[in-house]
Amino acid sequence: MMKFRFRRQGTDPHRDRLRHDLFAFSKTVEHGFPNQPSSLAFDPKLRIMAIGTKSGAVKVYGAPGVEFTGLHKETATVTQLHFLPGQGWLLSLLDDNTLHLWEIYQKEGCSHLEETRSFGLPGRPGFDSANCSPSITRVTVILLKSTCDVACLGTEGGGVYFLTLPGLALLEEKTLFQDEILQSVPDDYRCGKALGPVESIQEHPRDPSKLLIGYSRGLVIIWDQTTRTVDHLFLGNQQLESLAWEHSGKTIVSSHSDGGYMVWAVNSSCQKTQQPVMSTIPYGPFPCKAINKILWRTCESGNPFIIFNGGMPRASYGDRHCVSVLQGQTLATLDFTSRVIDFFTVQGTEVAEGGFENPRALVVLVEEELVVIDLQTPGWPTIPAPYLAPLHSSAITCSYHISNVPLKLWERIISAGEQQSPRLSSASWPINGGKNLAQEPTQRGLLLTGHEDGTVRFWDASAVSLKPLYKLGTANIFQTDCEHNDSLNQASEEEWPPFRKVGCFDPYSDDPRLGIQKIALCKYTAKMVVAGTAGQVLVMELSDEKSEHAVSVATVDLLQDREGFTWKGHDRLAPKNGPVAFAPGFQPSVLVQCVPPAAVTAVTLHSEWNLVAFGTSHGFGLFDYYRRNPVLARCTLHPNDSLAMEGPLSRVKSLKKSLRQSFRRIRKSRVSGKKRVNANSPSSKVQEANAQLAEQAGPPEVEMTPVQRRIEPRSPDDSLSGVVRCLYFADTFLRDAAHHGPTMWAGTNSGSVFAYALEVPSQEKFSERAVEAVLGKEIQLMHRAPVVAIAVLDGRGNPLPEPYEVSRDLAKAPDMQGSHSMLISSEEQFKVFTLPKVSAKTKFKLTAHEGCRVRKVALVSFASATSEDYAENCLACLTNLGDIHIFTVPGLRPQVHYGCIRKEDISGIASCVFTKHGQGFYLISPSEFERFSLSTRNVTEPLCSLEVSRLQDTSCLSNNFMVTPKLPQANGTHVPHSPEANHSPADSDRSPEEHQAAFSPGPVDSPNSSMENPLDTTGDITVEEVKDFLASSEEAERNLRNASEDEARPAGILIK
Q: What are the φ and ψ backbone dihedral angles of 683, each rounded to 5 degrees?
C-alpha cells in the first residue's frame, strides 16, 4: 500500500525563528594537552608561548583564557616555531621544508590567528637539480634577528640564507655558502672535509650585525654581516649540537655529541681560538649521550645557570629523559617520563648592559606534558599549570559532567585538592600575556574523568581553561603492588646523577582491574559512587578532615545461584584488612563487590533514598548504603550467553559458537535475499508499480514518506545480551494512575526493560525499616535493540528533577496531576510510552530513517538567545556516524542535526558526554577533549586580545582575511555547515506581537515543525511485550478488552 503524508504548504516561520534562537553548533575550544607536540616557541615581550604538533597544528597560549589555534593546510610535522618578539608574527617550519608566517590580528575587538603566506627554499644555484640532493637546502636552524626584519636560515648543506620579514622574500645577495667560510679556515683544520650542516645560529647579544654560526663538524665562527668577513674562529674538534651566548657577549658555550660542553672566550685581539677555557662531561667519565641544547643565563646572586638536556651515561641511564639545571655546585637532574621536545627560560624583557638576566622560571615541553620550574625559590619547585594539564596522565576510561555545582561543594573540593598537593612555589604563572575578554562563567561546571590506575580527577570546566582541582585515588583500598612506586621515587642522597622526578604523566597501571568504569555524584549531599573493572562499587562521601577507618564490604551475587555458569575472567580485587588512612576529600564508606567480578556497565545514585543501583554483563543490583545491605539482585543472562562469563580480560572464546552464529547469519541473509528477489510475486509487482509512480511528479502538497530501511530483529541468544546498559530512579506512577512512588528502571543489551516499585521508608524511619523492591513491569522491545537510556517525563513533558532539587527550592516540583510518560532510547529508535499502562504514545525510528545507530543520548535544556525566560527540553543524540540529532520531547519532532565527529573516530564517539545546558565534550586524542556547543546562548569559547606593536605597516598582508566563526581545529576537523543546520535567521526587527508568537509553546509540536524526517503515521502496529506484575486480574482483563476495542477502531496515528 502506498504511504502518503499530507501537510500544509510552506513552513512555520515562528518555529524557524525559535529554532534559530535555540540551536547552533560550533566546536569551541580544545581542553588538555596537545597530542604529539613537536616544537616550542616563546615571545618574551608579549609573554606568550606557541606549541606545534605532528598533525600540523599551531597553538598559542598566554594568560589563562588567552588561546589561539591554527592548522596548516598541509598535514605535516611542525619542526620549528619562532616568534618575532612583540610583533604578533609567528614563523613555522614544517618537515616538508616549507616556511609559514602566521599573524595574530585584531578583528571586532578580539585577536585571531591566521596564516598569511608561505615560502619554500629553492635549490642551490649552479647545481644540477637532478644530481643535487634536495637535503642540501633543507633548513636545520632558524634565527629571527632582533631587528625583526630578517630571518636567517641554516641548512643541511652548510649554507645560510636570509629572508625578509614579514614578506618572506629571499635576499640572494646576502646568502653565505661554506666556500666563503672555508677561505678563512686554516689548511690543517680543513683537511679537505666539508664543515657539515649548520647546527646553530645565534645573534650577538651586543652587536646585531654579528652572527655566531656553528657547524656540525665542530667549527664555530662569528660572522660580520656588514663586512662579510669572519670575525673569529673557534676550532672545535667534537661534533657540535648547540650554541649559546653568555649575556655580555664575552663568552660562548657549546654542547657536543659526547655528552660534554665547552666554554670559549671571545677574544677580540686574536682571530682564532683553538682551545676552550673549560671543557667538561658532567655525567662522565663513561660514554654519554649528546647534549642536544644548552642555555647560559647570568644571575645576580652569583653563579650563572647552565641548563641543558641529554648528556646521560649511555649504558646505565641512556633511556632517561632529562633536563639538567646547574648553578655553581648545585645540580638537579630533572627526570621526565617522556621525551624532551624543547625548553626555554622566562626572565625580564629588558636587561640593561652589564646587568643580569635573573631567570624566573624554566619551561620544559616534553612529549606528554608541560612542566614549569620556579628558579627563584630554593629547591626549584614546580609551578602548577592553570591549563595544558595532561588529562591522560593515566589513560581516561570514562567521563562525567555536573552542571551548576553549588558553591559550598565547589569550595570543599578545591580545599581538598589544595591539602592534597600544597604549593611549594609562590611564583605566579610566567606565561601571562594577552587579556581574557570572556565574561566570568555564570555557573560552575565540573568534569570528572575516571582513569585506568583507579583515580578520578576533578576538573574545573566552567571556562576556556580546564583546570585541575582534586585527584581521588581508589588503589589504597585494595591490596595491590602500588606501594613499591613510592620507594622508587625516593632518590637517595648519594645517588648519582641526582635524579628528581618531575611531572605527573605516568601511563602505567599497576593493575588493570583498578580502572574506573562509571561515576555518579550527588552535588547536593556530596555523595559519590565510583565503579570499576573488577566489579567494585565504592560508595563515598566528602569529608573535610582526614580519617582512618575500615571500609565495610558487602558482596552481591548477580548470578543468583544459576547453574551451569563458570566465571573464566579475572579475580576480584582483595580489600585491605583493618583501618585505612584517608586524606581530606572523598572517603569510601562501603565497598559493594559484584560476583562475578565483571566490569560495571551502569551505575546510578539516589541520595534522598540512600540507594545505589549498579549493573554488569550478568545482571543488576540495588544496595541500601544507609543500612549497608543489598535490596535486590537480578540476573539478566540468557541461557546461551556463555561469552558474558569470559570477562574483558580473558582470552577464552568459543570458536564453535562463533562459527555457528556466522553460519546462521549467512543462512538467514540467503533466505531473506531469496524472498526479496522473487520477481514474479505479486508484492514485487506492486513494489515496481510504486517505484514508477514515485518517479512521476505528483502534486506539490502530496509528499512521499522517505524510504525506511528494513530492521532485522536481533537474536535473543546473541552474546552479551544480558549486559545492563542503563539504570534510572524515578518517583512516578507504576502501580496505578492514582498513586506515585519510588521506582527503579533497568535496560539491557537485549532490549529488555525491568521496572521495580520500591518501598522506601521516610527519613525518620531509615534505621528501622528496610527498603523493599517489587518487580512491577517487564518490557521487551520488539527488535531487541539495546536500551541506551530511560527517562520519565512529568505531566508537562519535563524531565523529573534530581534528588533534593525540589526540597531545596532549586527546581520546580514535577507535575504529578497529569499522566507521566516514559522515554526509552534504544540503539534504533526513541519511543514514548504512557504510564502506568505502558502503551506506546509516539516514536521516531532513527535507524530506519537515517541508517545509523544511537550511541549517546541526553535530555538537554536549551535556553533562548533572545528571551531570558524561554527554554525547551530536548533530546540530544549522538550516532555511530558521529552526527548529533536534536528532537523535541515528548513529541520527538526532529529539529536539527549536525556532523560533529568523524565516523571513523570510534573512541571519540564512545567518549562523548553531554552537559545539561547544550554543550559537550569528546576525546580527539588520548590527551585532548574537544568542547562543542549545540546551544545558541550557552557557548564557552576563547575571547581574548593581544596588543602588538609592529615596527612597520603590514596591513597589506591582512586585508584579505575571511570572517570565520572558528578557526580549523588542531585535530584536522572543522565546523561543518550542513544544510540541515542552516535555518532562516531570526528577524531582529520583529514586532512585539511576532516576538511573543515566536515563543508561544503552541507550534513546538505542530505538523509544520517536522523536518526532512517525518514521524511515521501509517503502517502495521507492532506491540512490545509488556508484563505487568502489579495489576490485578480484573484490571488486566479490562486493559486487554480496551486494547482489542482500540484495534477495531479506524487508525488515526499508529505506532510502529
A: -65, -35
Sheet of 928-935: strand order equals 23-32, 928-935, 919-925, 913-914
Q: What H or E segment, with its residue span, contains residue 883?
A: strand 883-888
d(CA 370, CA 778): 53
d(CA 461, CA 401): 9
Lowest mean pLDDT among 323-337, 525-539, 808-822: 808-822
Which uninterrupted H or E stretch holds 114? strand 110-120
DSSP class per residue in 672-738: HHHHHH-TTSHHHHHHHHHHHHHHS---TTEEEPPPPPP-PPPPTT-TTTT-EEEEEEEEE-SS-SS
With CA atoms as reference, report the closest residue to 136 among 169, 159, 164.
159
Q: Which of 696-705, 928-937, 1032-1041 has the lowest mean pLDDT?
A: 696-705
Tell me: the pLDDT tens digits for 729-784?
Answer: 999 999 888 889 999 999 999 999 999 999 998 877 777 788 999 999 999 998 89
CA distance 855 to 787: 10
755 close to 776: Cβ distance less than 8 angstroms? yes
Q: Distance between CA 319 and CA 510 in Å, rounded?
A: 21
**pLDDT, the chain, mean:** 83
What's the CA gap between 271 and 304, in Å, rounded? 27
Strand 883-888 with 611-615, pairing:
unpaired
Largest CA distance in the chain: 115
SS3 of residue 636 by DSSP? coil
Q: Which residue shows C-alpha cell 636587561?
A: 351
Cα–Cα distance between 1030 and 775 in angstroms, integer? Answer: 8
Cell of 124: 642551490
Sheet containing 467-473: order of strands:
396-402, 446-451, 455-460, 467-473
Amino acid at 369: E
CB 743 within 8 A of CB 709: no
User: What's the rounded Cα separation, in Å, for the pair 979 and 897?
Assistant: 9
Rounded Cα gap, residues 289 and 310, in angstroms: 6
**pLDDT value at 177 more than 80:** yes
Closest CA to 503 of 283, 322, 327, 319: 322
Amino acid letter, residue 247: H
Highest mean pLDDT among 541-555, 560-574, 1015-1029: 541-555
**3 state DSSP class of 477:** helix
DSSP code per residue over 22-56: HEEEEEEEEEE--SSEEEEEEETTTTEEEEEETTS
CB atoms inside a 10 Å sphere around CB 813: 11
Distance of CA 682 to the CA centre of its chain: 55
How far apart (Å, rounded) are the C-alpha atoms in residues 879 and 898? 11
**Phi-psi region at 218: left, alpha or beta (left = phi > 0; alpha = psi -120 to 50):** left
Query: ∠ CA(257), CA(258), CA(261), 5° rounding?
Result: 85
Per-residue pLDDT of 644-682, as tens digits, reads 666 654 444 455 555 666 666 665 555 444 444 444 444
* Contact present, 204 and 210 (Cβ < 8 Å): yes
State the Cα torsion 890-893-898-904 to the nearest 10°.
70
Question: Whole-prediction pTM value?
Answer: 0.85
**Taking a C-beta distance cutoff of 8 angstroms, is the pair 120, 178 a contact?**
no
The per-residue pLDDT for 1049 is 45
Give the lowest-confidence range in 39-48, 231-240, 718-727, 1014-1023. Answer: 1014-1023
Segment among 185-194, 429-438, 870-879, 891-900 with least mean pLDDT: 185-194
Residue 825 has pLDDT above 90, yes or no: yes
How many CA atoms lie less than 13 Å away from 678 in the CB half-sphere? 10
Q: Which residue has the cell 510510552?
A: 833
DSSP-derived secondary structure letter, 170: B
For 490, other C-beta atoms within 10 Å of its C-beta total 8
Contact residues for 811 (Cβ-Cβ < 8 A; gap 6+):
801, 802, 805
